[in-house]
Design goal:
There is one protein chain. The protein is mostly helical. The longest helix has 55 residues. The protein is elongated, with a radius of gyration of 56 Å. 0% of the residues are buried.
């Protein structure tokens, strides 16, 4: 019968002779038993490597590398990736709807401000004094007994109007005209 090894691979899991559940009371028999056990449990002699003489090169073997990912870890990663992919579309829709709601609320607030402004403007138009002032300003209405006075601006096509003074020369134009004048007078 072969001896079982411990999970760490170090020695047998049980010692021979200690597995019985009966209790011995004789101390002399206990020491003899331990001596016999220690004799039987001697280390095996180290095996010698034989040199491959005239057999050619030795073949180098590599120890198997432990797998980086176990099957459970791979399945767990696949499940997490699937969940992440499954949640991206609803999350994107949620964020788009949230921004759309914010835009609609901003538009609604702007429309409320415009409605308030129009309501205030309507209240002004209900006042008879404001109505008279707007009629005078925009439609040139005159109260009975008043003399209307209208200022007519001059016609831009009319040449009889007083011409405006020419703009003063800029410094670089003055400089260039003096260079041209010096060029025109050639020494004889």
């Amino acid at each position: 019968m072969t001896q079982r090894r411990a999970p760490s691979g170090q020695g047998p899991a049980r010692r021979p002779g200690t597995g019985s559940r009966t209790r011995q009371t004789n101390p002399v028999s206990r020491t003899r038993q331990s001596q016999t056990v220690s004799r039987t449990r001697q280390r095996p002699a180290l095996s010698r490597r034989t040199v491959n003489v005239n057999r050619g090169e030795t073949k180098r073997t590599t120890a198997p590398r432990p797998r980086a990912l176990t099957g459970r870890a791979t399945v767990l990663i696949v499940v997490f990736v699937a969940l992440a992919l499954a949640y991206t579309y609803p999350l994107r829709v949620y964020l788009a709807q949230k921004s759309q709601i914010a835009q609609l609320e901003a538009d609604q607030a702007a429309q409320r401000k415009a409605i308030d402004a129009k309501t205030i403007d309507l209240q002004k138009w209900k006042d008879p004094e404001y109505l008279r002032a707007q009629a005078r300003q925009q439609l040139f209405y005159v109260d009975p007994g008043d003399t209307p006075l209208t200022v007519i601006p001059p016609d831009p096509a009319d040449k009889s109007a007083k011409p405006t003074a020419p703009a003063p020369d800029r410094w670089y134009e003055t400089l260039w005209s003096s260079v041209e004048a010096a060029d025109a007078e050639q020494p004889k």
